Amino acid sequence: MERHTPDFGLTADDYGRHRAGFPPELITRLARHGVEASGRDALDLGTGTGSLARLLALAGARVTGVDPAAPLLDQARRLDAEAGVTVEYRVGTAEETGLPDRAFDVVTAGQCWHWFDAPRAAAEVRRLLRPGGRVVIAHFDWLPLPGNVVAATEELIVAHNPAWSMGGGTGLHPRWLTDLATAGFRGIETFSFDLDVPYGPRDWVGRIRASAGVGASLPQERVRAFSEELTAVLRDRFPGDVLRIPHRTWAVTAQAPGA
Asked: Do 213 and 11 meet the contact criterion of CB atoms below 8 Å apart?
């Protein structure tokens, strides 16, 4: 069966304005696992609006970001300018970047590996990494817990888009370890940490519009209807100016052969 891939370019504005990016602590944790950013050549696959690419650049890496959606890269450049960093962006896919062999010390994929053809993407990462280079697959996932705002939001997404099947996640992605091991990477390690992200109600609605099950998949009239209903749910069931949304940061790191 052919898998439908959402078009995040359709929701680039919401994506750039409302989706919380990876926490800076991720870079600190990666350094403890042997993934240094300062002075390194780094490639961020599926970079989107540049959340992870920007953190790498702020930490002193020379960063290239690749994504198939040009509108997301426009948002990334805007956010980079606000952050005072420069990242080289190019339109492309994780499976065929068009970049030269052994050009990078670090290759990352943040919140996107599940959209890739894993065997082809892993082979491309091996081609792009220098001997002993590091690959990082990272996620920053909301956590649905019984009765919380995330669980209520996921219920509403399914009501508006029954084809959406990405709810109920734990923020852990063990299959990616097998993807990397199969491709010949070694020294595979994982870590995770949890934190709450504050969202205003309007920002949470915008963040959910910028998700695969809503703005990247549904026609605009259905996105508007979803937004109105989620706004009502937040007003009636989760009143207040700040929603504290539990998230889990999870990453797997591995080393390319040849060190």
From this structure: no
